[in-house]
Amino acid sequence: MAARSVGARVWKDGNPHDGDIFLLANHVSWLDILALAGATGAAFVAHDGIARWPVIGWLAAQNNTLFVARERRGALSGQIDALRTAMLGHQPVALFPEGTTSDGSGLLPFKPALLAVLLPPPRAVMIQPVHIDYGAATAEIAWHGEEPAGTNAMRILGRKGTLPVTLRFLEPFDPAGCADRKVIAAMARERIARSIVQNARAHQRPSASPLPPV
Fold first, then answer.
1. Which are the contacts of 16, defined by CB distance < 8 A and separation ≥ 6?
2. Tens of pLDDT, residue by residue, the chain (214 residues)
3. DSSP string for residues in 56-116
């Protein structure tokens, strides 16, 4: 409902894995959180600055988001422990491993540090990469560089028409088959990158199905 209120129309291409999942997605906009949370019910791992954002921060907190201070040295061990505790439930968990938003035309390097929680995971879980695809509108809505959050929000809220967002749920894989967290990051990144290339010039969604209305 929050995504629809700002003009987004969320479509699914594929489906979330039927079981406990850890989602790794590309990151283009603050809209990513609304779209992916609405489709999967996932709790997010997000930088602590989001907690202070008007409306978005409050919405994220309602979904059990784990806010972490990515730049704070010495905090990684505690962050992994908090993430491990969050994973003991059966709510899906989502992470943006780029660590920040990009322009959507490709991917930034994936930061594997927090993926250490998956070696081994506190419970059996499958990793599912997700390509968040804004199609032809990607460059228009992407939030990157030095653009202030308020400026980006006003630009998107002032945009005419609806904004189709396709969540492309890619093939999941078992972290138990990965030697280390860098392998996990590389496998997820390769699958998302491949989807970005494959869909760069194809904005139609012949196999996508709209989410049912809330």
1. 23, 39, 40, 92, 128, 169
2. 878 888 889 999 999 998 899 999 999 988 898 899 889 988 888 766 676 766 667 776 776 777 776 555 556 777 788 788 878 877 899 999 998 888 888 899 999 999 999 988 888 899 999 999 999 889 888 888 778 877 888 888 888 888 999 999 999 999 999 999 999 999 999 999 999 999 986 754 444 555 554 4
3. HHHHHHHTT-EEE-TT-TT-HHHHHHHHHHHHTSSS-EEE-TTSS---SSS-PPP--GGGG
